[in-house]
């Protein structure tokens, strides 16, 4: 498709990505820029420290990145440490203190949030990050205990970011079988009523349909598919046996962190979902996710969801159809689907209201301010209020918060309120005063080509801070 | 395993709406309604177990608290609801059992939408039943969660209440808020305008935001005839698929939290408690039987708790459907024998003095909605 | 029909029985559509029907002239099928299971109510002391952080927090109104303090939201290895073992 818009200027970068940084070029050809962005490899960079007067951008340190296996090993150490502590004779408060030290030593979640935020601000792959964040919200995993919250970042990196160039079916399967998801939606407790486990040990076994239900309702076909309880049950029975908890020090036979399928807990026999039969065994799940990924209702549901996210709530039926068309023609190839959706967004006159996370990432990038703590900052004490978990939590838009599996809303009405705006005003002022922006409001207006009406609004500010707040909260900055 | 930490439960929110307009609403009763949304699906059979029903122990022995408070020969109350028990004893609380909104598809998101919209079709309407009730009672003037819950959205937009906590930040400046308000449109204009109004009022009242604190502040803010008429408090995490807990644990902790929220609300409302009714709502109950992970799945019928001085005497109201296999909905859930919107309607009638037929038709769009006002408040 | 010979007496009796059964059935039919379950709709008067009817009359009709008796079923059936039928049906969609809890055992206690009956309050004592609320971080190096501090005025044995003192600072709601208003503390003849008080387990920085206080009973802490060198320390019994706040008084 030939686009009417030709240059990847600041507005386009904000609409399709996370916004330009002060030194990014603003005159590249749109499609050239877009292809470069879509082909980019994950670019994990970060600030060194918010207290460092000169902004130093460094690669995210390897010792603060953990693979799936390393995460599980850390959780096991944490668990063992806690067990030893519980068995010790230390006084209560001393135990509490040591438990906190264990947490700091082995928990991954705080650093994960730093890595996530820094990547979004300093990464040169802003479009893929925007896309990864979209899918991370679609496949919601959130804090519901140690296992999930400490595996989440790996879900982001492996099941979402790592799948952007694969098919939707690949992503759906990768996400469904990831320990973070299996644990978040309780599938680690989903055990077949007639499983070997149930028969042999007479233990309490039963289906937990949480993941099976959300797989249909949220992740793929949506309720528009008119499935019934039996379909949910079928999906749950296919999922029985997927998942494993780290309290067992050994991997159960046949399972690995990457493929945590435990036949011992699986429900024997064939299952039926949406009129299709699935055989017994591990492979049934891949068949199921592939069928769901290719279902017409999934294409309808997700083409529209992408359109709302990038184009806006006023997306047209034609725009959605063209995204769906790309889906059909490419057989669910995400890069092609994304490219189509993004070009539709670039050429649309519709506006999308920036959710708080998008807003603060764009404000941080475009102003060049040092908002989020860096790799050497202490997330629990020194400047803790600049930790990613605090800032995104305060904005009520943090993937790591406890929340429900339908993810954050993309609708404007859900993010407009005096309390939401109170936070934006406060953070804009905070960034202007304390985070050393490289570009002040006037400079951003000139560099990024904000409109005259925004310029005249900002001109009414009586000092740098006021001008910064007025720009950050102007209609043109909040909606693009 | 993975016992959840409740200190971290910061996601509870509160919102206020419906400040009377002078010379407009003088003749109507000045009652207050507080809706407490229990998100995730509360297990009504755990909160208020029908201990007199012989099938209870057969169906879910493992989920009944060891020592439920005995309300009467038929119904017990979970011991973690002790403050609420006190309200029942004093005649300022009521329970409605075997009830649900008319929704049986067991999806949180559709169910939560319907709890707030008050109609039958999910996502079909952009206003909520309390918002429409305020419109009918002409209480939809200006008002005071980070979000504006659907349930109070009516003809006008409302403020909300969940104070920010941003170290080294400054409160919004009145002049800037005025500038932003005029540069934006529609709802965004309103939101900035409200910030300007707050800045102008110089109100630096307590900014507290744990669930009990929110309930306390909410109650305090509602005091007096000038105070907002409705509030919504949201308590998440009732979706207990695993390790639900019986005497202790997840669900009992949540009941205890609800108990403290009701108590804080009562303290906050002070003298206004006598004109108030707090009513819980949840999108569905939970399955009658335990699942394989010591939790329960999404069900149908549940229980509603009401508290406040508007209520007339402690009681449990129900058209009890029974718990034998043949009595259950779909063979697995407590049947609902009462459209819970009837209870909402009774609260609106009691607080705002609106005619039931009007509430049924204009607020719930269900002309035949049963009137339960006299049974609950009589 | 012409050949039928029935004694008029027998006819009258069977008609009466038939009518009574029909009235019972009418009542049962109505009740079976309500929350007052009469058992099977069989026209037979029994305990279940009587109980359901009694509940219905008490809770819904509320007119003592209607009695839950078999002989009244004709009249009640007329009521049930009369103009009030719909209204009664709707009102009877719920049954009231009266709560029989004893209100006396649920007298609402204030957050700082305390029984001083066993305490020999030193009503003659007045003076000014400094207070701190501290939280113990570790016993090893005696490290703690303070949560609130300021001045306490003792008047006739009753402690009052003086929020106007220049060094006053509290966490939580930073104006400390709760401490000034809610504390219920008295000093005894041995110089020991008793009672209940609010305390704040957070210090709140500028721009941050406050928290409500917790309430705790004061108990004197005197265990080997857990004494503090300066002033008198009281353990604040919060019911939470992970936080051990102390109230410390220097007079």
Can you describe what's shown?
The complex is a heterotrimer of chains A (480), B (378) and C (251). Chain A is mainly alpha-helical and 480 residues long. Chain A has 23 helices and four strands. Chain A has helices spanning 10-16, 30-39, 68-87, 92-106, 109-122, 126-138, 146-160, 168-176, 179-184, 196-201, 210-219, 229-239, 283-294, 296-310, 317-330, 334-347, 356-367, 388-394, 418-434, 441-448, 452-458, 464-472, 475-478; strands spanning 45-47, 57-59, 271-273, 276-278. Chain A has a two-stranded antiparallel sheet with strand order 1-2. In chain A, strands 3-4 form a two-stranded antiparallel ribbon. In chain A, helix 14 packs across helix 16 and helix 17 packs parallel to helix 19 (418-434). The longest helix of chain A is centred in the first third of the chain and has 20 residues, at 68-87. By secondary structure, chain B is an alpha/beta fold. Chain B contains twelve helices and ten strands. In chain B, the strands form two sheets. In chain B, strands 1, 2, 5, 6, 7, 8, 9 and 10 form an eight-stranded mixed beta sheet that branches. In chain B, strands 3-4 form a two-stranded antiparallel ribbon. In chain B, a hairpin with a 5-residue loop joins strand 3 (69-70) and strand 4. In chain B, helix 8 packs parallel to helix 9 (250-269) and helix 10 (341-352) crosses helix 11. Chain C has 251 residues and is of the alpha+beta class. In chain C, strands 2, 3, 4, 5, 6, 7, 8, 9 and 10 form a nine-stranded antiparallel beta sheet that branches. The mean pLDDT of chain C is 80.
Topology order of chain A in helix (H) and strand (E) letters: HHEEHHHHHHHHHHEEHHHHHHHHHHH
Task: Give the number of DSSP strands of chain A.
Answer: 4
Largest sheet of chain A, if any?
Answer: 2 strands, antiparallel
How many DSSP helices of chain A?
23
User: What is the CA-atom radius of gyration of chain C, in angstroms?
Assistant: 36 Å
Number of strand segments of chain C: 10
Biggest β-sheet of chain C, characterized?
A: 9 strands, antiparallel
**What's the end-to-end separation of chain A, in Å?**
22 Å
Uncertain stretches of chain C: none
Strand content of chain A: under 5%
- The strand line-up of the biggest sheet of chain A is 1-2
Global mean pLDDT of chain C: 80
Strand pairing plus helix content of chain C: what structural class? Answer: alpha+beta
Number of discrete helical segments of chain C: 5
Q: Give the CA-based shape of chain C.
A: rod-shaped
